[in-house]
Amino acid sequence: MFFHIILERNMQLHPRHFGRNLRDNLVAKLMKDVEGTCSGRHGFVVAITGIENIGKGLIRDGTGFVTFPVKYQCVVFRPFKGEILEAVVTMVNKMGFFAEAGPVQIFVSNHLIPDDMEFQSGDMPNYTTSDGSVKIQKDSEVRLKIIGTRVDATEIFCIGTIKDDFLGVINDPATA
Amino acid sequence: MTLVTDSPVHSSSSEDFASFLDTHLTSTASDSSANEDSDGEEDLESKRVKRHKVEVLDIPENTHEPTTGAGTSKIEDICAHPGTFGNMCILCGQRIDEDSSVSLGYIHKGLRLANEEIVRLRNADTKNLLSRKRLYLILDLDHTLLNSTLLFHMNSEEEYLKSRADSLQDIENGNLFMLEHMRMMTKLRPYVRQFLKEASQLFEMYIYTMGDRPYAREMAKLLDPRNEYFNAKVISRDDGTQKHQKGLDVVLGQESAVLILDDTENAWIKHKDNVILMERYHFFASSCQQFGFSCKSLSELKSDESETDGALAAVLRVLKRAHSLFFDELGDSLPNRDVREVLKTVRKEILQGCKIVFSRVFPTSFPAESHQLWKMAEQLGATCLVELDDSVTHVVATDPKTEKSRWAVKEKKFLVHPQWIEATFYLWKRLPEDNYSVNQL
Ligand SMILES: [Mg+2]
Ligand SMILES: [Zn+2]
């Protein structure tokens, strides 16, 4: 799920960045530091959309660096239990398959793949229905349901299932 | 100047937001699944019964599979937790920190499976593989498929190699590579490309090395630049379950269908019968030194092992023979066949028809039948005799002047040194007797 939220961060800036471009420099550094990283329980910061407020700078003893508290608006992505996600399959094996939704790694075990889909090994391992009409392989796009998430400071892991109505392949790379 | 990293501030408002989401979303999720339950209870029950019928045939222990996965707490309670990904159960999604399962990090970071689950997968996978007329083949890297050296271990006589390294842009057509970022040079064993190509038709192949993961991955790239053979089947010492030992516990194949190529038998204490021991490939001087050889290395001699008559070509013949015996000539039903027995049969074909008499090779009081050489000769399919008779084909001796040795010369029988038996045993082929004549050695 995506959220538009306000986060806060203390930014340290070298004195050489001071002057009339101070604000631009602060924002540029903030984007570089924050976008694409996983921010604890909030999830992945996708993009900074605006600056709420930049507080008064505090000079650090001895270094000349100044710390500014910056409040910023951003879009974050964080999966939740029960959420339906679309993801791209990255690896298929006899245990199930791995998929990615942006930076989130999802594993769908073969226990949670419908019973009528069977694993086929070979050069392009896949799960296929007995009539061959539906196939999950590397680069397939699937719709899955999250049944567990673990959000770390730097990574998000998910357990998914496609054993439910309206879940499974939404785009087959072979026929696309 | 030191760089100071920014410290994120956990403002109270954003923390509140995260916890609000956590509680709100969890409660709605369980709400909705509770509704589902009451709506479709009958349905759920019948589905479960149906699935039960199907699964009882092959996976009897697997009776508590959840139908929706999410939220239904009853199912979580009885989940067997067959494995974890990122410390969450792959079946119920529950957080599991205490974990006695086996790490399968070589397949994917963060993946672990419980023992019973590995056994279940192994059985299913082996069945599937056998139906495709394939067996498992586990390949060691160093001294088996290739030889590597650190650059600073290379001596002046090997210096010329550095300008002869093949391009990393065209790995498929090279066999000598300079890996500057690892400060290493690697030489692939002659015939290895043809070997992998042909073996991949008969076997599902794994790499299993005592090297670390970055090294294993790098070597896999050199051996398999198109990623046709070893996809997610590269096991390094970082993935094993025991120090200094290689084991089949992380391999998803049954022992009875696994063959192993390795130059170090002691790495496989529990699986000796699966191992085909390889003659060591020493290309670089540092490698010879490490094993205590004082002779010139192949690199110093600007020479190499034979392409068509080297160890890999020889072992490929053994593998092909074992494969064809296993699938085409055994009478048992597939699941009852054992490749370890097949390997013994292949070995027995090597000296079939040979009748061997030993002359003063064993100490006089030593029971001949329990001597290593006697046993080797028998495992190679030869018949060992104590007394000479007309049917004898070989006399094995170290001294050309014994009575039996002289008889052999007179009767135009082979007179060979005991090393002929050892070499034949380890190289899996009957070696020319002339190279092991007793006078020469
Ligand atoms: Mg080795
Ligand atoms: Zn579980």
TrEMBL record, chain A:
A Pfam family of this chain: SHS2_Rpb7-N
Segments traversing the membrane: none
Family: Belongs to the eukaryotic RPB7/RPC8 RNA polymerase subunit family.
Domain RNA polymerase Rpb7-like N-terminal: 8-64
InterPro entries: NA-bd_OB-fold, RNA_pol_Rpb7-like_N_sf, Rpb7-like, Rpb7-like_N, S1_domain
Gene3D superfamilies assigned: Nucleic acid-binding proteins, RNA polymerase Rpb7-like, N-terminal domain
Record SUPFAM superfamilies: N-terminal, heterodimerisation domain of RBP7 (RpoE) (SSF88798), Nucleic acid-binding proteins (SSF50249)
Keywords: DNA-directed RNA polymerase, Nucleus, Transcription
Location(s), subcellular: Nucleus
Start and end residues of each S1 motif domain: 79-156
A GO CC annotation given for this chain: P-body
Molecular function (Gene Ontology), one example: translation initiation factor binding
Protein's organism: Punica granatum (Pomegranate)
GO biological process, one term: transcription initiation at RNA polymerase II promoter
Record's protein name: DNA-directed RNA polymerase subunit
Keyword Nucleus applies: yes
PANTHER family given in the database record: DNA-DIRECTED RNA POLYMERASE II SUBUNIT RPB7, DNA-DIRECTED RNA POLYMERASE II, III
Function: DNA-dependent RNA polymerase which catalyzes the transcription of DNA into RNA using the four ribonucleoside triphosphates as substrates.
UniProtKB/TrEMBL annotation, chain B:
Bilayer-crossing regions: none
Designated name of the protein: RNA polymerase II C-terminal domain phosphatase-like
Protein's cellular compartments: Nucleus
Keyword Ion transport part of the UniProt annotation: no
Domain of life: Eukaryota
Organism: Punica granatum
Disordered: annotated segments: 28-54
Domain BRCT residues, every copy: 346-438
NCBIfam families referenced in this protein's UniProt entry, alphabetically: FCP1_euk
Record gene name: LOC116201638
